[in-house]
Amino acid sequence: MRAVAGNPSLTRFLGRPVRIRGENPAKGSIAHHPGTTLILGTAAFNITYMEAHDDELRRFEASGATPLPVTDDLGYIENDGARIWYSAYGVCAPVILLHGGLCHSGNWGYQVPALIANGYRAVVIDSRGHGRSTRDERPYSYELMVSDVLAVMNALHFDRVALVGWSDGACTALILAAKYPSRVAGVFFFACNMDPTGVRPFEPTPALNRCFSRHTEDYKRLSATPEQFKHFVEDVGLMQRTQPNYSTQDLAKISVPVRIVQSERDEFIKREHAEYLARTIPSASFIFLDSVSRFAPLQRPEQFNTAMLAFVDEVLQAANWYGRFTD
Predict the structure, then answer these.
(1) Domain CATH for 233
(2) Would residue 4 count as lying in a domain?
(3) What is the DSSP string of 198-240?
(4) Which 8-state DSSP code applies to residue 66?
């Protein structure tokens, strides 16, 4: 199969078939087609996938994501009152994946192999107080989580990385890029808000309930404080209700490439907020993922991974940054 010019990853993901049709909407428009619509300047590519789905998260509830690969490159980094767990896979330019609230790095089980197969060094981190990482008594904040990511980057001797953020991880990634742009090649920003107006009123769904059930079990299995799940949920919820609160002026100062990724059925984030972020951040672009929710990396991994790999390829190859990364 022939690759789309400038976007070879759109056809090569794990050797599975992908059908691509080129479109040319007016510049700045946000087209809507079955599959994924990728807006890059004046070109949009409609991508249709053939894969097994877990749209209702039944497999995820039962057994979680597919296990992460085996690696010897893992451990804890001490930072600012916490022990932060990470694991790394592959070689060459690093891509750090930051999970969402109440989750842990194992939820990236479908993304890490895709990054390795495409020649990247994938690094996952359990956020402060999540998974295997510990926390101190201070309230959660995205700024503290930014400091944890920087501590891992410094320990692994990364000069600059691409960041893939999911929900709370997307907030952390974008705040890191805003504060330390020289350390970030680009941010793949999925399923989060940057001020409170971007959040929908909460409506429980069966898929959300299944996801919460999985989080409960994983916390008990991984955490150093397995009996404190209720407090954990309350503390993370407080952060999510009050942070972040970036103004239009704050967003306009972000200088790194950002891809804002919105799912058709996101349970929490308004589409108009995602579009606002894409308009306001100077080097941002927008992707709309059809037929999935904020759990797209679990529901339809190939759909999510194709969009993720296209962005990672773009930001890490465009300026020939490979030589700037060290092991």
Answers:
(1) 3.40.50.1820
(2) no
(3) GBPPP---HHHHHHHHHHHHHHHHH-SSGGGHHHHHHHHHHHH
(4) P
CA atoms within 13 A on the CB side of 22: 8
CB neighbours of residue 169 within 10 Å: 31
151 in Cβ contact with 246 (< 8 Å): no
The Cα angle at residue 224 between residues 134 and 75, in degrees rounded to 5: 60
Structure tokens given for 39: 């807006």
Compute the CA torsion angle 128, 130, 132, 137 (nearest 10 deg).
50
Is the Cβ–Cβ distance between 314 and 303 less than 8 Å? no
How far is Cα 276 from Cα 262, in angstroms, rounded to an integer? 12
Structure tokens at 73: 């490159």
Its pTM stands at: 0.85
pLDDT, tens digit, for every residue of 207-216? 999 999 999 9
Q: Which domain holds residue 88?
A: 9-324
Which range has highest mean pLDDT (6-20, 21-35, 234-248)? 234-248
Distance CA 10, CA 46 (A): 10
